[in-house]
Write a structure and sequence with these properties.
heterodimer; A: mainly alpha; Serine Threonine Protein Phosphatase 5, Tetratricopeptide repeat; B: mainly alpha; Clc chloride channel; 4 domains; 4-stranded mixed beta sheet; 3-stranded antiparallel beta sheet; 24 helices; 62% helix; elongated
């Protein structure tokens, strides 16, 4: 059997002196041969690169089609193939990472993103994706860290817009995790840097309102309306925020404006206006009211609250003893309601203005208790409950 | 004066290098070593260019034969490896018989057996054969063939230049380092591998040429193919010091897997080599079918598999998938390699290592999530681990990972894991894979591993402590003779000056004393200057110094006047006779 390593047959290596011209010529020729060899290799390498680039582009197109068709896993495979032809392409890597995120392959996506971030830690887009992955993996601190890096990072296109939307996303994330103060701080920082665009002011104000910062939200809605006086979403938002901070006249003004601008009430603004209407009928604490008006409102509030409270005090077969099914506090409240009922009329209250607040307070307390027992209120009950809640918040 | 210096320089230069007289008077002429360095750069340049072409041709072949997708399915995934196997088998049987074996083994054979000669047809054959086989999906890598292509080009250039046998023998390793440096895009790894596995020596002259050749080749490769390393390496941080235990576990597993691989490949290869000659046409084709079948389930195993290594380092597979891929690659590579399909073992070794490393890391993370971090670094370290276990190049395996990752902080896990794997592999199997492959091909090549581990005898192992008389040169023969009479020592040494010693026999000393007792010892005409040796000096080098003398003085390194003992030729010979290594 012939072995693969048979001795090669050559002339024996020279043991004599090399002649000078031959040696020098060969080495010089070798050096000269380098030039055409480099040139030829350059051409081949260029062709090779072009081919790789073409293949990479083709596979990216395929990946995007797959993504469009809702097949993120197939898209990720196509991106991977594209990356095999354009390995260090950060755009493809980022897209692959996004596809992997869409396919819920978070560890893989993260590995790609970490690699990208290591190469250039200042990349805003990469940090934003990392923040999203961390957020989905419930890594609160890491997510916030990456969101902040995304906000401070480099963005190739529309840097300001991208940073803003990253900040909005961060504040939403903070809000979801109950960090209301940090979320509001982010939104306020965002508001300080907004361009003269009513929509953007409005969006930020809506975020603030969602974070419960209604006073700041109202301010931003107002600025939005200064920029565009007919921007309906800002009017609705301003109405809502004013309502939330118990500035009912302002709320009414904005909501009415909204209805006019938006050509008719929608369900939400209609409900708010209705509540406002009821509020104007039952709010005995509104400033600059005469005693007669306050007495009338308190009496009306008590009447509404009593009707609503009746759902709690109606005895049933099981509970023959009056108020036996109520808690002690509720039973006490029911007794006080019963005792106060005969004096909760306008005539008595006009004569005894000191009792107006007492009656009104009792009405609010009953509204709160009924809301717990008798389900969500509507109309006048809702208005009364709103007042009750504001009183509780004020305390 | 200048003329005298030029003449002296010309005398120092070897005849073939005298041609490098300056074209312009006044410029110094190049000496042999300098010309050798120029040749080293030339070899590196051409090897680099050849490897660039080789890598491009493999990729084009892959796209052409298997399509541009990373995951070729049925039927191309099975038929193409089989057909490429048939084509390669025909080429091996008809035109290029020398391409069947490993490039490392062939290059070593060129250095130690064939006077540095590698036929140029082998270079062409490796280029074409490996392009078809690796491009066609066989589970082999391009680094080993690149090494051989570089060595072959160097040998061809050396033959053209009609270099001496000694120089020609050195050219093949230069070319090998150049080829490997361009293939890996990592010159340090290439230099170390050639030194560690092919040359086995750190001689300064050779090292310089090897480094120049590897660096120029890597530069050429980087000019055309870019600076990017073979893999995108993940960031590495040690989560916890106890994580080093996990890397030790990886070393144990890696050593075991390396053994399994070697013990699968070698017996199977021996069996296939002894199969009838006609079956050689079928072996690569059959291997192609099997590899293709495996590729239907695990397309990552087709070809070199760099992309899968990259994916493993980026946590893209679960640990179970990584373990499955490692097993699949072991089978596929074993099939491709034992069938004689041309291609290298470097890339498959790295692939298996990355998968084993990732699997171990993933499994340990599952068990101890607080201790074990990402699996990417485990895949990276695993590559070095399997490199140490299968290819038995421990130093290269460490530096390769450091060079590829560009991260020196990973060196501790790599050292731990590689050392354990190497020790396991070393204890459990006789030799390195390439040496065993060469032995199967009928060539017993020197094992660098054995050479490294051969016990080194030193002068202190043989010398007789203080068993000699040490006299001063100014001492009178009368006092010297009285000392000699009282001493049982046969050897008499005389201190001539700082670090200078002479020897005289006891009989000569007594004769001289009888003639003129007042003479100083230094005035003796029989006094023979003798070199001194040191206790820690290797016995081999002391033996060179001893020449025809019966004994040498052994002196203290910090005080060359102090006689530590005597190294007698008889004692040295007795040591070699008594403790000669067992035959074989």
């Amino acid at each position: 059997m012939s072995l693969p390593l048979e001795p090669p047959r050559f002339e024996p290596p020279s043991t004599t002196t090399r002649t000078f011209p031959r040696f020098r010529t060969l080495v010089l020729l070798s050096i000269l041969a380098v030039v055409p060899a480099f040139a030829a290799t350059g051409v081949v390498v260029r062709l090779h690169r072009d081919q790789r680039q073409r293949l990479a582009s083709d596979w990216v197109r395929t990946a995007e089609e797959q993504l469009g068709a809702g097949r993120p896993l197939e898209a990720a495979e196509a991106y991977r193939t594209a990356l095999s032809y354009s390995r260090e392409n950060p755009v493809y890597q980022l897209r692959l990472a996004r596809a992997l995120v869409s396919a819920d392959r978070l560890p893989e996506a993260r590995a790609y993103l970490v690699n990208l971030a290591n190469r250039d830690p200042s990349q805003g887009a990469v940090n934003l994706e990392l923040a999203r992955v961390a957020a989905r993996q419930d890594e609160h601190q890491t997510a916030v860290q990456h969101y902040r890096r995304a906000i401070d990072g480099y963005w190739a296109d529309d840097a300001t817009g991208q940073r803003r939307s990253a900040r909005v996303e961060l504040s939403s994330f903070l809000l979801q995790h109950g960090d209301r103060a940090a979320a509001v701080a982010e939104l306020m920082a965002l508001a300080a840097d907004l361009p003269a665009d009513a929509a953007q002011y409005t969006r930020t104000a809506q975020e603030l309102a969602a974070a419960g910062a209604h006073i700041q939200a109202l301010e931003l809605f107002r600025r939005a309306l200064e920029i565009d006086t007919r921007y309906a979403p800002a009017m609705l938002g301003a109405g809502r925020s004013a309502f939330a901070v118990a500035d009912y006249p302002t709320a009414r003004r904005y909501l009415v404006r909204y209805e006019r601008t938006a050509d008719g009430a929608d369900e939400e603004s209609g409900a708010l206006l209705e509540t406002l209407e009821y509020l104007s009928q039952v709010n005995a604490r509104e400033p600059r009211l005469s005693i007669a008006e306050r007495a009338q409102r308190a009496s009306r509030a008590f009447e509404i609250a009593s009707k609503r409270f009746a759902c709690m005090t109606r005895p049933d077969e099981e509970h023959v003893r009056p108020y036996g099914y109520l808690s002690d506090a509720e039973a006490g409240l029911a007794r006080r309601m019963e005792a106060t009922g005969k004096n909760a009329n306008v005539r008595y209250l006009r004569r005894s203005p000191d009792d107006i607040d007492l009656v009104f307070e009792l009405a609010l307390e009953a509204a709160r208790a009924a809301a717990r027992r008798c389900g969500p209120p509507t109309g006048a009950d809702l208005a009364l409950l709103t007042l009750a809640q504001q009183t509780a918040d004020g305390r | 004066m200048t003329r005298d210096r030029s003449a002296a320089t010309a005398e120092k230069a070897l005849p073939w290098a005298k041609g490098w007289r300056p074209a312009w008077p006044g410029l110094p002429s190049l000496e042999e070593d300098q010309v050798f360095l120029v040749i080293a750069i030339l070899i590196g340049t051409f090897a680099g260019l050849a490897v660039v072409w080789f890598r491009i041709s493999i990729e084009w072949a892959r796209v052409l034969l298997l399509g541009s997708s990373l995951y070729p399915g049925w039927p191309a995934g099975v038929l193409v490896p089989a057909l490429s196997g048939i084509v390669v088998a025909v080429l091996m049987a008809t035109v290029f018989p020398g391409i069947r074996t490993s490039g490392v083994a062939y290059t070593k054979a060129a250095v130690y057996v064939f006077d540095g000669q590698i036929p140029f047809s082998t270079v062409i054959g490796k280029f074409i054969g490996c392009t078809i086989s690796i491009g066609g999906g066989h589970s082999l890598g391009p680094e080993d063939p690149s090494l051989q292509i570089g060595a072959g080009l160097a040998s061809a250039l050396g033959r053209r230049l009609k270099l001496s046998r000694q120089r020609l023998r050195l050219l093949a390793p230069l070319g090998a380092a150049a080829g490997l440096a361009a293939a890996f895009n990592s010159p340090i790894t290439a230099v170390l591998f050639v030194i560690e596995e092919v040359l086995g020596t750190w001689s300064g002259a050779v090292l310089g040429a090897v480094v120049l050749s590897a660096v120029s080749s890597a530069v050429v490769s980087q000019i055309f193919l870019g600076h990017d390393p073979l893999f995108r390496v993940p960031a590495y941080t040690l989560t916890d010091p106890s994580e080093l235990l996990a890397y030790a576990a990886l070393g144990v597993v890696g050593g075991g897997v390396g053994l399994v691989f070697t013990k699968t490949v070698l017996p199977l290869r021996a069996r296939l080599i002894s199969a009838p000659a006609w079956s050689r046409f079928l072996q690569p084709a059959a291997a192609g079918v099997l590899v293709g079948a495996i590729g239907l389930l695990f397309p990552e195993v087709l070809g070199a598999g760099y992309h899968a290594i990259d994916s493993a380092m980026h946590d893209e597979y679960g640990w179970q998938a990584l373990a499955a891929l490692a097993a699949a690659k072991i089978v596929a590579t074993a099939m491709s390699f034992v069938s004689g399909t041309p291609g290298g073992m470097f890339a498959p070794t790295l692939f298996i290592g990355a998968m084993v490393g990732g699997a171990v890391g993933g499994a340990l993370r599952f068990i101890a999530p607080d201790v074990v971090g990402a699996t990417g670094p485990y895949a990276l370290v695993g590559m070095g681990t399997l490199f140490a276990a299968i290819l038995r190049a421990p130093l290269t395996s460490v530096f390769m990972i450091v060079e590829v990752s560009g991260n020196y902080s990973i060196v501790i896990p790599v050292l731990i894991s590689n050392t354990i794997a190497y020790v396991i592999a070393r204890r459990s199997s006789a030799g390195a894979l390439f040496d065993a492959v060469a032995a199967q091909d009928g060539l017993v090549l020197p094992s660098m591993e054995h050479q490294r581990e051969e016990p080194l005898w030193r002068v202190e192992d043989v010398m007789r402590p203080r068993a000699a008389l040490a006299l001063r040169a100014e001492q009178s023969l009368a006092s010297a003779a009285s000392l000699a009479e009282a001493s049982p020592d046969q050897h008499v040494f005389v201190r001539l000056g700082v670090g200078r010693w002479a020897a005289v026999s006891r009989a000569q000393l007594m004769d001289a004393h009888d003639r003129s007792p007042q003479l100083p010892v230094g005035g003796l005409t029989d006094l023979q200057p003798t070199p001194a040796v040191y206790p820690d000096q290797p016995l081999e080098s002391a033996l060179r110094a001893i020449g025809g003398r019966p004994a040498l003085p052994v002196v203290h390194r910090a005080d060359p006047h102090r006689l530590e003992g005597v190294l007698a030729l008889d004692d040295v010979l007795r040591k070699y006779q008594l403790e000669r290594p067992a035959p074989g």
